[in-house]
Each structure stands twice: as C-alpha cells, then as structure tokens.
Write a structure and sequence with these properties.
Layout (H helix, E strand, L loop, with lengths): L6 E12 L3 E9 L2 E8 H6 L7 E7 L2 E5 L3
Length: 70
C-alpha cells in the first residue's frame, strides 16, 4: 500500500456497527486507544472488514479513512 497521507496507524478492527448506508468502525491501536471512523456500508464490504482483522486508520486533515493490505 502506498498513500500520500503521513498519519497511518495500524490496528485491529474491534467493532463494526453497520446501518443501511453508514458504518462506524472501531480500530484498537493498542494501549487502550481506539480510533473510530464513519465510512459507507459499501466500503466495509469492499475492504472485507471484520472484527479481528488488521486495518489502518489513515488520518488526513479532519478525515479518518480505513485501509487494508490486499
């Protein structure tokens, strides 16, 4: 994965709450710290996100994006 954002934090998906269109993804990055991102339900599907899977919180300005290794 290559990306221009400099704030990339690896963690583990702790929880996914999916609504019809929007999902809240909680990533545990260790030491009791969690990062929460609101993404589309379609993105959860496209990234194959699941509890326990490794993922990255990508923070750019006021947005927190979610990324995974392919």
């Amino acid at each position: 994965m290559k990306i221009s954002a400099r704030n990339i934090i690896k963690g583990t998906v702790k929880e996914i709450t999916t609504g019809r269109l929007v999902a809240h993804v909680v990533i545990d990055v260790g030491n009791g710290i969690e990062i929460v991102s609101q993404i589309t339900a379609g993105s959860v599907e496209n990234l194959n996100l699941a509890k326990g899977k490794s993922a990255y919180a990508v923070i750019k300005s006021d947005h927190v994006l979610i990324a995974v290794d392919e």
